[in-house]
């Protein structure tokens, strides 16, 4: 059954207290009495208004509205609040209600591929009664998915319109339900504009100003990678939309981020460190696990693996430059991901580099299990979930300080963390691995143990605690403001 539209805003009526005026013939005594009465009435009205505002501030929300499109983070954030009894609703574009009997019956007769696609937009642990769909945003999402040939400019405008629609809907719904509001970035500006209480922002990526600076530097240093860099959101958005992304980071009272690097970019752009909670993501260690049968013998080539969009923000060119610096034929690199900058970057490497633009989920896990080391030299990353997937499969990681790597591993124990844009440092660590194959295997064992600490349950617990802490902080701030009145 279709859900009712939530696009209508909540109307708020305010009554004004009026003081009647007397004629010019009134006596001085009458005028004096009336003036005192008017002052008393006005004072009483002001006190009443202050009490109402104080009561509103004092009443902390116990449930929250969450907003994002797609299956962001596997719905883990909404699920965290739901499990804690703190979810008012998830506002999203598309969601398959897998917890209902009729949908389970339909799933049994669907072709395997279609069933798999549908289940990507569902979570049996998240009650569908707590999910509210925005039909317009969902329709635009389907249209963009079904028409891949749409020009980037059109796709960008449609996506931003859908994001704004979701944000407005969430802000209005949270206001109507007197609930708290937790918005993922990209929806926050419109969500917070339609919401008057302190709100929480989950900043998925580094601050947009920091991202634009980093990407601009990359564009100047690597003009041959302009195709992919100019598609990055922070460079391709019209200025008004970009400023909305910047503005949303100033409208929140508290921030959730998945990495210390993201926290640092928020702080360098004005956010108080005390208002930022770092909560690393989790990984399914039952799905991503080592398989010793796939590992190569110690005397064979060192097998490196890169997973992600094959573009310059992920630092792919720096990895290839590192291979040139090594100039060894006992290293092999497998690259899994969609190619954005074209295959020209790889042609000079021959069969030393294997580019796999399309792999299934099972093939991806097999690639992790077959490699000796995972390399991810990104120059700007909100987290980099592939790092945890690699660790869970028993792979030492080689990544940069601009990812979640410093939050996940101890340098030189479960892998290496280097400065970004340093192919010489990448080459040095790969060279070490070539000369210490036994130690690399031991690193892999520690990598798996490290990944086992980063569960999704840990992430969900961290979210709930951070939200509760933000509520306490907001309550304290409100009490302080009342005491100073």
Provide structural commentary:
This protein has helices at residues 28-58, 76-83, 101-107, 112-119, 135-146, 152-176, 188-193, 208-221, 226-229, 233-236, 239-251, 260-268, 316-326, 361-370, 385-392, 405-408, 423-435, 437-451, 456-483, and strands at 64-67, 87-92, 131-133, 180-184, 200-202, 254-257, 276-278, 302-307, 331-336, 353-356, 373-376, 397-400, 415-418. By secondary structure, it is an alpha/beta fold. The protein has 2 domains: 64-282 and 457-483, Rossmann fold; 292-454, Rossmann fold, CATH 3.40.50.2000. The strands form 2 sheets. A 7-stranded parallel β-sheet has the order 3-2-1-4-5-6-7, sandwiched between helices. Residues 1-57 have low confidence and may be disordered.
Spans of at least 5 consecutive residues whose pLDDT stays below 50 are 1-57
Helix content: 40-55%
The fraction of residues in strands falls at 5-15%
Largest sheet: 7 strands, parallel
Average of the residue pLDDT scores = 87
Number of E strands:
13
CATH topology description of the largest domain: Rossmann fold
Q: Nearest-angstrom radius of gyration?
A: 27 Å
| First-to-last CA distance | 50 Å
List the domain count as a whole number: 2
CATH architecture designation of the largest domain: 3-Layer(aba) Sandwich
CATH class of the largest domain: Alpha Beta
Total helices: the number is 19
The class by helix and strand makeup works out as alpha/beta
- Within the largest sheet, what's the order of strands? 3-2-1-4-5-6-7
Shape from CA axes? globular
């Amino acid at each position: 059954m279709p859900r009712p539209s939530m696009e209508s805003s909540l109307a708020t009526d305010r009554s004004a207290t009026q003081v009647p005026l007397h004629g010019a013939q009134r006596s001085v005594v009458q005028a004096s009495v009336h003036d005192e009465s008017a002052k008393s009435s006005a004072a009483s009205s002001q006190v009443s208004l202050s009490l109402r505002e104080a009561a509103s501030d004092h009443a902390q929300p116990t449930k929250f509205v969450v907003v994002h499109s797609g299956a962001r983070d596997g719905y883990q954030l909404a699920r965290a609040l739901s499990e804690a009894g703190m979810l008012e609703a998830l506002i999203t574009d598309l969601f398959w209600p897998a917890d209902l009997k009729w949908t389970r019956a339909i799933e049994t007769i669907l072709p395997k591929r279609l069933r798999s696609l549908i289940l990507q937009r569902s979570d049996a642990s998240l009650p569908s009664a707590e999910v509210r769909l925005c039909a317009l945003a969902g329709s635009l999402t389907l249209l963009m998915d079904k028409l891949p040939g749409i020009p980037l400019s059109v796709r960008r405008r449609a996506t931003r319109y859908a994001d704004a629609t979701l944000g407005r809907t969430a802000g209005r719904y949270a206001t109507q339900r007197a609930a708290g509001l937790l918005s993922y970035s990209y929806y926050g500006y419109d969500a917070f504009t339609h919401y008057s209480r302190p709100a929480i922002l989950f900043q998925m990526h580094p601050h947009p100003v920091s991202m634009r600076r980093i990407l601009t530097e990359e564009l100047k240093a690597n003009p041959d990678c302009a195709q992919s860099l100019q598609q990055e959101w922070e460079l391709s958005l019209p200025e008004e939309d970009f400023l909305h992304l910047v503005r949303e980071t100033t409208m929140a009272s508290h921030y959730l981020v998945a990495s210390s690097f993201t926290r640092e970019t928020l702080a360098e752009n004005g956010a108080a460190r005390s208002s930022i909670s770092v909560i690393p993501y989790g990984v399914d260690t039952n799905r991503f696990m080592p398989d010793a049968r796939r590992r190569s013998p110690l005397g064979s080539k060192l097998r490196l693996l890169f997973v992600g969009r094959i573009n310059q923000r992920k630092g792919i060119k720096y990895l290839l430059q590192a291979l040139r610096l090594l100039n060894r034929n006992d290293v092999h690199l497998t690259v899994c991901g969609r190619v954005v900058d074209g295959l020209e970057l790889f042609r000079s490497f021959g069969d030393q580099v294997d580019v796999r633009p399309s792999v299934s989920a099972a093939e991806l896990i097999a690639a992790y299990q077959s490699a000796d080391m995972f390399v991810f030299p990104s120059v700007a990353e909100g987290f980099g979930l592939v790092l945890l997937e690699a660790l869970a499969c028993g792979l030492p990681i080689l990544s940069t300080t601009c990812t979640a790597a410093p939050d996940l591993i101890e340098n030189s124990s479960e892998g290496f963390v280097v400065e970004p844009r340093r192919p010489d440092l990448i080459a040095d660590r790969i060279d070490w691995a070539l000369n210490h194959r036994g130690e690399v295997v031991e690193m892999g064992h520690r990598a798996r143990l490290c990944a086992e600490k980063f569960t999704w349950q840990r992430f969900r617990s961290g979210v709930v605690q951070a939200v509760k802490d933000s509520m306490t902080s907001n309550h304290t701030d409100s009490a302080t403001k009342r005491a100073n009145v």
